[in-house]
Specification:
2 copies of one chain form a homodimer.
Chain A: H1 2-7, E1 21-22, H2 24-42, E2 46-49, E3 53-55, H3 56-59, E4 75-77, E5 83-86, H4 91-100, E6 109-118, E7 130-139, H5 144-161, E8 168-174, H6 175-185, H7 197-208, H8 210-222, E9 225-227, E10 233-235, H9 241-261, H10 264-268, H11 272-277, H12 282-294, H13 302-317, H14 322-340, E11 348-350, E12 364-375, E13 381-392, H15 398-401, E14 407-413, H16 414-423, E15 435-437, H17 445-457, E16 462-464, H18 472-481, E17 486-489, H19 492-497, E18 499-504, H20 505-512, H21 517-522, E19 526-530, H22 534-542
Parallel strand pairs in A: 2-6, 8-11, 15-16, 15-17
Antiparallel strand pairs in A: 3-5, 4-5, 6-7, 7-14, 8-12, 9-10, 12-13, 13-14, 17-18, 18-19
Chain lengths: 543, 543
């Protein structure tokens, strides 16, 4: 009978893949997002908050992740027969808004959005079905000035939340450049875009794995295929040696250039022997030298040189592809615009190795990577990696209106960035809990409430113990659980004498942690003060 | 064919009953909630953010609104067969959390939560299926000190967002008192709680309509029933004259007392003739006089007298009902606790007319009402009304654990409070848009980006015009739509001369609105400044 009753009780559990956020989890994220919003605001972006629910029809299928195109949404049928679903990102609702309110919104429309999104996928460790996104997009501008602005803003946002310059890098690439390289390598035919689609998919995935597989591994995947350590075979793209060489020079050259550009003086003083050994740097070096000699009075900046080098090499690679050349000149323009605002290669670089999201975006692509090292779950050091990504997607609004509306934007991975800040000890975790006013005499609650009221009016965070006051030890345990710095105590004896006792719980913890006798003596863990001095005395103890 | 294509396009529409929030809609709400959170924090409440999705099992059916018990949720079946749903309030998830984490949370647990909730009900004008709630609750305290604290905190929260003292009142009642009155009136039998349920429902709804129907209307509903102006008949509770008289004295007496208490001196100086005309005030007057004479050195405060008067009258009404007497002494304690913290009747009053939510709560009930007048949709003046409500609900966690856990809390109606702030002109609408840097020469975008970068680095909100720059008129229209205070202009001529032109758009608007010639002359609508002085000159123009 009792068992029967128990089995009818609902389980007190979050659904699988969902979680709760307590205290500092909430305040740290909020502080971070508030700081980001402040930057977005300064750039002229307006907040937009759409509802969590959209029609399935309006949402469409726009997940940027090429590896999981069938990732699902949480959906249901309305009583009216309409299918509704929870938004899976903040871009699809933006597209709907941009179409629905196209006559009312300023054009171009800069907006930011922050909030949860939902994905109906198998939950895993650290992988949740509800998580935060933080997006900024400009709708209605075809100018790459809009893309450059997004990159600069992303850089500012990272710094303002606590990632210092040098600990992050924003990389910029352009989908059109890769398309150009593919075209030159003969795996893209502009007159028949569907042709070689499978091959291009393999090439994209191979390039994406350069960090893990190295040159040899990527090269194998471009060709016949690759057998990994476990003996599993991954089929390759089947490119010829010549074709693979074009792709490989795309993969390798800019990396070499960027490294070299990090030390500009070394680059300009490169000797002919080194240049012999690094033929891929030749174009960049000659451009750099030409640039320097052209205007000897004005030393070119690292940023301009880096961009010129990368752009020179990429320009060579896509020769013969008009789309590729468009892409290169867009990159050159972005580099110019960033240069004009003073964003150097210590913050933003043109880097053709960025391929994430290239399947989704149509023009410039951005990715912000944190470059400091952390320890992974197995205790190994590794770079923190990507925390934000974005790019240009010119076809999103077209679904609704039939008209192409250019758009570009960025999405910050809120949980990852927050994890990074915590890893670096830069998330503003609340150091101190509330002052706790304890209850000695149950029938003098009014007196205790008066104390807590005075403390709060003075701006102090303070609580009255509201549990059963019988066991005083429980009250001190509660104060401890609350990380309280000071407990206020007044028994009937103290009340008669018009005093209160303040217990310094921070010191108490230090003593428990082994403070010396001198420290103990120098600072009393408990003081008695006149009741009228309560607020001042607590303020003294907290300062 | 073209038509066919168009019909396949998705509609760009929010689902019925949902809406988008733009710009100031978002920032004003955020500013309000941030201010409220600051108060909650000071009171020792910790934030909790649960996910939007819960199991249907965990959610249960706990809607506080007695009139619509079958109000639905948005639910669907998971692939695992579990039924999931969007939360319909923030209390049900709190109950689940309190049960799930009962061994980890501090006890008592003070938490606040802010966020959207969803209701699957027919949308109507101004009635949405997603809306914000802002709750604070204390779980695990049986003390009415917890209830008093919630009332004080609610009062502080209203003032901090911009409702000044005098423009709001927090009313406190107790479900147990009404139960006591019902028991005395013979429509509640403690040994058979289900008996007279229908009658009690009619009585509750009748009391709730006192403002609209007046005494006569309520009295009719307590008896045989009431015919309204259209001729429609509403069945009454069928009470006898004696029974109805008890309910009516509950409805009327405290109102009269409270009015009288608003002028304490008048109350104490009431003459015997007036007292004859208001027999319901007799008890309160005698208590007040007795109190004053008991401690003649110490004038009782209005708050204490109001409470004593109300409590005296209520005590008389529930004589014979132990539950009713518990309720009255709880109200007396709450009044004492608030008095101890200095919350007078200008902020919080004991008021038995509060019946909203009495069907849901088990002890003290609170309601915050805004007392200033606004014009309704028909242009009639009326009081703004309720913006927050709450109370004690001791059985919520029991569903999960089998153990009763006392809890009390309040929920602020975010949209209503925001509407009130707007009605009073107290919502911090953004007065000013961004500075707009216009584009005269398409090939000098880098120069314009440098300008906008400098402005932003100086902390100014600034935008570069990113649309097609061909038509300069469109750029000024854009600046106007953005409520921009200053447009920055630099054509090739100005560039050559190393200057920029600043156009004062605020002044421009004033001139358009009919500024005098003197004003026009005294302040040039357009100035030319050296390019190097851009930031300083814009700052001057904005100040």
């Amino acid at each position: 009978m009792a068992k029967d009753k128990a089995s009818r009780r609902p389980r007190a559990e979050t659904p699988k893949g969902f979680r709760d956020y307590f205290g500092a989890d909430v305040t740290e994220r909020k502080a971070m997002l508030d700081a980001v919003a402040e930057v977005y605001h300064r750039y002229g972006f307006d907040p937009l908050e759409t509802s969590a629910v959209e029609t399935v029809e309006a949402l469409g299928k726009f997940l940027p992740d090429v590896d999981r195109p069938n990732e699902g949404v949480f959906g249901w049928q309305d009583e009216d027969g309409d299918w509704l679903a929870l938004r899976y990102d903040l871009t699809a609702p933006l597209a709907r808004v941009a179409a629905q309110f196209r006559n009312d919104l300023p054009s171009p429309y800069r907006r930011y959005a922050m909030g949860p999104v939902w994905r109906n996928e198998k939950p895993g460790p650290g992988r949740f079905r509800q998580f935060y996104q933080c997006d900024a997009d400009t709708v209605g501008s075809a100018s790459v000035a809009a893309d450059a602005e997004i990159c600069a803003m992303l850089s500012d946002a990272l710094e303002v939340v606590g990632i210092p310059r040098g600990d992050y890098i924003v990389r910029v690439n352009n989908r059109k450049v890769l398309n150009g390289v593919m075209e030159v390598a003969g795996v893209l035919d502009p007159s028949d875009p569907a042709k070689f689609e499978a091959e291009r998919g393999i090439v994209l995935r191979a390039i994406d794995k350069i960090d893990r597989l190295g040159e040899t591994g990527v090269r194998a995947l471009l060709g016949s295929g690759r057998k990994d350590e476990s003996g599993d075979f991954t089929k390759g793209a089947g490119l010829s040696d010549d074709q693979a060489a074009i792709i490989m020079s795309f993969v390798n050259a800019p990396r070499a250039i960027n490294e070299r550009m990090n030390d500009f003086s070394e680059f300009l003083s490169v000797d002919s022997e080194t240049l012999e050994a690094h033929p891929e740097a030749r174009t960049a070096v000659s451009i750099a030298r030409a640039w320097t000699s052209q205007s000897p009075s004005e030393q070119p900046s690292k940023n301009r040189l880096t961009s010129l080098a990368a752009i020179g090499i990429l320009g060579d690679l896509v020769k013969g592809s008009s789309q590729g050349q468009d892409g290169v000149s867009e990159l050159a323009q972005i580099a110019d615009y960033l240069e004009a605002q003073g964003y150097g290669p210590d913050r933003i670089v043109v880097d053709p190795s960025v391929v994430r999201g290239l399947g989704y975006y149509t023009g410039p692509v951005f990715e912000a990577e944190l470059t400091f090292e952390i320890f992974d779950e197995k205790g190994r050091k590794r770079q923190f990696g990507s925390v934000a990504g974005g790019g240009r997607y010119d076809d999103l609004v077209k679904r609704f209106t039939g008209q192409s509306v250019p758009a570009t934007g960025v999405s910050i991975g809120v949980d990852r960035l927050l994890a990074a800040l915590r890893a670096k000890g830069r998330a503003g975790a609340e150091a101190q809990g509330p002052v706790v006013v304890t209850v000695m005499d149950r029938d003098r609650m009014g007196d205790y409430m008066a104390m807590v009221g005075e403390l709060r009016r003075a701006g102090l965070r303070a609580e009255l113990y509201l549990g059963n006051p019988k066991n005083f030890g429980n009250q001190l345990k509660y104060a401890d659980a609350r990380k309280s710095p000071v407990a206020v105590i007044q028994g009937s004896d103290e009340a008669t004498r018009g005093v209160v006792v303040l217990k310094d719980l921070v010191l108490g913890a230090q003593i428990a942690a082994g403070a010396s006798l001198e420290e103990w003596k120098s600072r009393p863990a408990q003081v008695e003060v006149p009741r009228a001095d309560l607020v001042r005395a607590v303020q003294d103890m907290l300062s």
